[in-house]
Amino acid sequence: MKYLVFFLEGPSEKEMLTGILPKIVPKHYNVQYIVFKGKQDMEES
Asked: Where are the domains of the chain?
């Protein structure tokens, strides 16, 4: 199984990707979203 992992600044980016990715990514990919609480939270982690 292949994985795609997205590091996202907030929940709005996840909403966008969950609408688009199923149409363009093959079903045998496991998609994982890691959502942060803004850019500073992302940089600190």
From this structure: 2-44
What b/e sequence results for 4-28 when a residue is b if at least 16 CB atoms lie within 10 Å of its CB, and e otherwise?
Answer: eeeebbeeeeeeebeeeeeeeeeee
**Best CA proximity match to 43, nearest among 9, 6, 16:** 9
| Residue labelled with tokens 């992302």 | 42
pLDDT tens digit sequence for 1-45: 899 999 999 999 999 999 999 999 998 999 999 999 988 887 888
Instruction: Give 39's contacts (C-beta < 8 A, 6+ positions apart).
Output: 9
